[in-house]
Amino acid sequence: xxxxxxxxxxxxxxxxxxxxxxxxxxxxxxxxxxxxxxxxxxxxxxxxxxxxxxxxxxxxxxxxxxxxxxxxxxxxxxxxxxxxxxxxxxxxxxxxxxxxxxxxxxxxxxxxxxxxxxxxxxxxxxxxxxxxxxxxxxxxxxxxxxxxxxxxxxxxxxxxxxxxxxxxxxxxxxxxxxxxxxxxxxxxxxxxxxxxxxxxxxxxxxxxxxxxxxxxxxxxxxxxxxxxxxxxxxxxxxxxxxxxxxxxxxxxxxxxxxxxx
Length: 261
Hints:
Layout: H1 2-26, H2 36-59, H3 75-96, H4 106-120, H5 124-153, H6 158-171, H7 176-196, H8 200-220, H9 225-229, H10 233-254
């Protein structure tokens, strides 16, 4: 029931936004997609309505409420998880760059994706607020705090719950180039949440990833680390593997906790 409510409310929210766009364009002759405020508000509507619907139609009927642990961790934990996230960022870029950006279908989709990014970066302050501040909080509450945690509490194996939440997180981005990075990043975020039991940890890591992308876009109009620093892509792959593997081992070895939330 929870999955149905989340999915149905997300679709309804998306249809509602699309209807407003269609009405304003055809009846009012106004293209709302050219307004940054519309993107900002529509993002909040599409992602917050499913949270409210899940809380109202699922939890309240069972006399429960949304409950998230945002407790900080010791300094050593941060020293382990942030390099681990950096490693997966380098690793995922290598595979993202393997996806074609030309062709009949992918070429048009990539052009549309690039134009959307360029437009969003025209208002850097709003983009920063939406991507670096709002998105990590809202998306982690949904994908890790509700979907992953809910699956685990329902008896699904932790690794399967992390994988499912990560795949949905990737699909929701709506394009193959962000899908790869989102799934890999989501897997790390899910693992960190599972081990630390604090939603604050994946929120901070998500914000770190988005902040790095924001800085790259603001300085060079590209999210690619390789293009920005003129590095061979294979160096990112090797560096990512080494950094991630090292800190993954240290994190897993130092954080042998049992998930009881």
